[in-house]
Amino acid sequence: MRFALIILVWFAGHFYVQRRLVRTLPGSRWRRWTTVAVALAAVLPLLAMTLWRTTPDAFGVTALSWLGFWSFGLSSVVFAFVLVRDGLLSAVALVGRLRRRRGGSLSPPDVVADPERRRLFSNTVNMGIVGGAVSMSAVGGAHVTTTPAIKRLRVPIEGLPRGLEGFRIAQLTDVHIGPTIRGGFLRGVVEAVNAEGPDLVAVTGDLVDGHVRVLGEHVRPLAGLRAPHGVFFVTGNHEYYWRAEEWIAFLRELGLEVLLNEHRVITHAGESLVVAGVTDLHGGASAGMPSDPAVAVAGAPRDAVKLLLAHQPRSVFAAERAGVDLQLSGHTHGGQYFPFNLLIHLVQPYVRGLHRHGRSWVYVSCGTGYWGPPMRVGAPAEITLVELVAAEGATARTA
Question: How far is it, in rounded angstroms, from Cα 362 to Cα 350?
C-alpha cells in the first residue's frame, strides 16, 4: 500500500509539472516534446530501479541507472521550482484580491495584462526553471565523482580519561555502493582513511544498494581498512532491502565487527572505551531485531565512556537515556539537495553536524556517497575524523 501511494504521488507530480509547463507553449510540437520529456523523466527512474533489482547484470543496466537517477534528480528539482513559482504567484494574486476588497470593489483592475506578454513571461519563467534545474544537476553531479574530503571534528567529553584524550575515530556512512557507485570509489575512500591513521573506524550503515552476489567484489576494498582497534559496522535501512543477513555474514568475513544491539569494550592507553552499535530503527524492527541502545550497552562498565553507532539520528532519544556519551549517525545525507534539504527536517531531529542532546552528543554526517540522483548541492560528502577531547572544567572518570 505504501509503495502504491509513493508511485501515485510520483506520477501525480509529473502530471502537475507537465500541465504547468505546456499550458503556455506555442504550437503543438513544443507541447508534444515537453510531454514526452516529462513522461520519460517519470518512467526512466522506475525502469532503472526495477532492472537493477531483477536483472542487474543485464547489458545496459548500469548506463540506464545513471540516466534514470539523473532524471530523478532533475525532475524532482523542476517539481520543487514549479511549486515555489506557483506558490509565489498565488500569494501575489491573493494579496491583489485582498487589496481590491479593502478598496470596496471586487471587480478586476482597470488595466488587464496583455495575454501575449503574460504568455511570454510565463514561458520565460518556465525556461528559467528548467535551465536552473539542469544547472543544479550539473553542478551537483560534479561534487560526487571524487573522493570526499576529510571533515575534522573535536568532541568534548565530560570526564574523559587522560588515556582517551585525542582518541580518533574515522566515520564512513551512507556510501551506497550500487548501480552508480562501485569499488573504485570505495578504494579511494579506504586509502584516504588509512592515510589519516585513525584509532578506530566506524561504518554507520547504508553501505550497499544491491545483493552480495552482485556487489561483493565492489565492497571487498573495506577489508583494506587499517585501525589499531578495528573496524565496526552497524546496519542502515538499505541493508535490509538487500538481504541484510547475507551482508552481515559477508562483512564479518572481511574482518569487520558487526554490532547488532551489542557492544565491545576496547582498551586504549590503559583506559576503557565502550563501542556499542544498534540495528536500524526501521529495518531492524522489520527483521525481528528492534533497535535498542539500552540493550546495546547493557553490561558495559558503568563509568566508561560510551560511543554508540546508530544509523538514524532519531536513536539519540533512547541513547541519551542509556547514558551514551557520543552517538555517530548518518542516514540524512544532510538533505543531499533541494528540496530534500528542507523536507528531511520533518522526520529527523538533527540533519547534519554536531549537536548536544541532554547529556549526550550526536554527530550526523552528510554521508560519504549518495543515494539515487548522482548530485549533491549544499551538502558535500565527507569522511569524518572525530577526535575525543576532555571537556573543560570536567573531572576525568575512571572505568
Answer: 8
List all residues 6 or more positions away from 150 whose beta carbon is below 8 Å from its beta carbon: 192, 196, 382, 383, 384, 385
In SS3 terms, the chain reads as CHHHHHHHHHHHHHHHHHHHHHCCCCCHHHHHHHHHHHHHHHHHHHHHHHHHHHCCCCCCHHHHHHHHHHHHHHHHHHHHHHHHHHHHHHHHHHHHHHHHHHCCCCCCCCCCCCHHHHHHHHHHHHHHHHHHHHHHHHHHHHCCCCCCEEEEEEEEECCCCHHHCCCEEEEECCCCECCCCCHHHHHHHHHHHHHHCCCEEEECCCCECCCHHHHHHHHHHHHHCCCCCCEEECCCCHHHHHCHHHHHHHHHHCCCEECCCEEEEEEECCEEEEEEECCCCCHHHHCCCCCCHHHHHCCCCCCCEEEEECCCHHHHHHHHHCCCCEEEECCCHHHCCCCHHHHHHHCCCCCCEEEEECCEEEEECCCCCCCCCCCCCCCCCEEEEEEEEECCCCCCCCC
Q: Which residues is 126 bridged to in the sheet?
A: none
Distance from C-alpha of 262 to C-alpha of 277, rounded to nearest angstrom:
6
pLDDT digits (tens, 9 = 90+) for 137-160: 999 998 888 999 999 999 999 999
> CATH 3.60.21.10 in the chain, residues?
149-390
pTM of the shown model: 0.91
Q: What CATH number does the domain located at 149-390 have?
A: 3.60.21.10
Per residue in 308-331, pLDDT tens?
999 999 999 999 999 999 999 999
Q: Residues with Cβ < 8 Å from 126, sequence gap 6 or more?
A: 20, 21, 24
